[in-house]
Amino acid sequence: MVCDAVQSVQPRKGKKRGRKPLNVDTAKRIELSRQNARECRARKKLRYQYVEELVVSREKAVETLRQELATVITSILQLTIIPSLACMPATQLLMAVLFNTDSM
N or C end of the chain: which has fewer CB within 10 A? Predict the structure, then answer.
């Protein structure tokens, strides 16, 4: 009986797994490939535009925050009655305040 089961299972000939071959002529297949490539390039371009816009908006936000920080530092220095420091550039002020340098 075991021999009968082994003999009855034989590999199928001519049938393969996976994709079936397309019955499309070569010119049509090449045109389809070109169209897909165009669409891929268009999607890539849109992705890069989106990322560039995101970078620009983030850079603007950073600049706005820097200006706000400079304003706050200047206000604090004016309130603490150190007028000689209030006329310094914001970056220099920040360095002087944070690191207690003698450039004040």
Answer: N
